[in-house]
Amino acid sequence: MMTAILRIESRNRLKSSVILTGVFAITSLFFLAVFPAMRDGAEAIEDAFPEYMMGLFGFEELHTIEGFLGGYVYPFIWVIFGGIYFAYAGAGMIASDIEHRQMDLLLSNPVSRESVIIQTIASIWVPLVVLNVGMAVTLFGGVQLVDESLDPVLLTMVHLLSVPYFLVCAGIGLVFSVTVKRVGTAQVGAIGLVFMSWLIEGLSEMGDTYEWLGTVTPHRYYDSSAILVHEEYAFSDAAVLTGSFIILVVIAVIIFVRRDIQ
Amino acid sequence: MAVISLDNLTKRYGDISANDGISFEVTEGEIFGYLGPNGAGKTTTIRQLLGLIKPTEGTATVLGADIRNRKALTEVKANLGYLPDELGFDERLTGNQALDYFARMRGDERREELLELFHPPLEQKIGTYSSGNRRMLGIVQAFMHDPELVIMDEPTSGLDPLKQDRLHQFLADETASGTTIFFSSHILSEVQRICDRVGIIRDGQLVALEDIDELLERSGKQVRLHLSEEVTESTFVTEEMIDVEIVDRSVQFTYTGKYNSLLDHLTEYDIDDIEITNPQLDAIFKHYYSEEYTEDA
């Protein structure tokens, strides 16, 4: 059975996914605890922040639970930290196996390098499912605690449409992991790039001159505010992200099958 | 039939040739010793045979597959076992889980049989293993799918002498039933004990390729003498003696001539004690690695 790698990699990702879900859940509950105060004083807060900060973080309708989640909780916890986690996880895949000499033993099996990459990246389904389900359940329950309610369809969509975004982050990490020699370097590089593109996208929204710059960042194609506040489901953006992920995986495969494993 | 065949296999890193035009064949059912000091290029050859790194020039076939043909090489790996020098197991798995993992990719019909000979603590996580246990787990995974060819890189490192003997015996039994073993080592006595043929690699080049027995024959006899009187080098030493050491009445040398001429020569002296043995490969090795040998060759 040529799913041995997928099975073991999935197994290995379970623990970190559960721990991270716990951390994200607790953090988002802390965020939610602030919401009642925010609900009353949102206007003052929106006035207090300079406009570019509003643009950077996508603050909008902060006094509604949809605006609060879409403009505050999701951009921070999901887009920044979630994105960083997937970039980190992707970057740790191949580079780590090479660095710890596991790749030598693995490739002595009748398994192609293409299959190794595809099975390894496919194991990303574990954190995708665990994190999404864990966060959705936490926030669905959490909003009840602050006497609010949230349309489960909106909640589902904000998570579903984040999947392609996370895939791209993981894909960026994967390309680093097949290119860079040391796993630490790959991880720092991938995290740095994902964080930088978040920053670039945020800043690019502030003026027309550099607006185009944001279009090359994955962050342009996932907007939690638009989903929660305006009920805009950007399926075409999700398709762009999914296509980008596939391209990143193909690039990673091409690099990996050509390189020497020292 | 050649199980492994190297044809001018070359791997360069910039100006440095880790493998420089190496050619030889390993035939079915033999234990081939690949001998050389650390850094000579043994592992570079092995990594090319496994398709982990690509040759700069030349090629090789493994079980009939050209190593430049990735698809063909991947397929024949079902009949290949590999014991690397540095065993990279997933430390979070137990021994059993690691074996299950490899079994899913290539089978494990001989697993139980092997675990009777080599028994690492299978219920424990590999992270807690000693180097000997790690090596035993490596041996089991290399042989458990009953491969036709097993490539072993420094296989006895970390094993205690008892387990080393067991491995040597096991390898002899395996080759008797047709398995081919490619055995890289820098431990000469080990290669001498178990290998049929040996290839010696130095600075990326193959400097010798012969039967162990012929190698020993060609390399002369190790002679140790204890004489009743002191001798001087100028009168005692003949042309056939190399590596001569004389300390008082004790003499030691490697004799490259015939036994009879040696015995004739020795009748002129009063001998207290004499010992004539096969030289250790160390001594032979020294010749291959000394400048003198290069000139002779």
Outline of the structure:
Chain A has about 260 residues and is mainly α.
Total strand count of chain B, please? Answer: 14
Q: What spatial form of chain B do the alpha-carbon principal axes imply?
A: elongated
Tell me about the largest β-sheet of chain A: none
**Number of helical elements of chain A:** 12
Structural class of chain B: alpha/beta
For the sheet with most strands of chain B, the description reads: 6 strands, mixed
Oligomer: heterodimer
Low-pLDDT residue intervals, each spanning 5 or more residues of chain A: none
Spatial shape of chain A: globular
Mean pLDDT of chain B: 90
Biggest interface between chains: A-B, 25 and 30 residues
N-C termini distance of chain A: 28 Å
* Pattern of helices and strands of chain A: HHHHHHHHHHHH
Number of strands of chain A: 0
Structural class of chain A: mainly alpha
The low-confidence runs of chain B, each spanning 5 or more residues with pLDDT under 50, are 291-297
Give structural notes.
Chain A has about 260 residues and is mainly α. Chain A contains twelve helices and no strands. Chain A is about 75% helix and about 0% strand. In chain A, α1 runs parallel beside α7. The two termini of chain A are about 30 Å apart. The mean pLDDT of chain A is about 90. Chain B is α/β, with parallel strands linked by helices and about 300 residues long.
Question: How is the secondary structure organized here?
Answer:
The complex is a heterodimer of chains A (262) and B (297).
Chain A: H1 4-48, H2 51-57, H3 65-91, H4 93-99, H5 102-106, H6 113-122, H7 125-145, H8 152-160, H9 162-179, H10 183-204, H11 224-230, H12 235-258
Chain B: E1 2-13, E2 16-27, E3 31-35, H1 42-49, E4 57-62, E5 65-66, H2 70-76, E6 80-83, H3 95-106, H4 111-117, H5 131-143, E7 149-153, H6 161-176, E8 180-185, H7 188-194, E9 197-202, E10 205-211, H8 212-218, E11 221-227, H9 233-236, E12 241-247, E13 250-255, H10 259-266, E14 271-277, H11 281-289, H12 291-296
Parallel strand pairs in B: 3-8, 3-9, 6-7, 7-8
Antiparallel strand pairs in B: 1-2, 1-4, 4-5, 9-10, 11-13, 11-14, 12-13
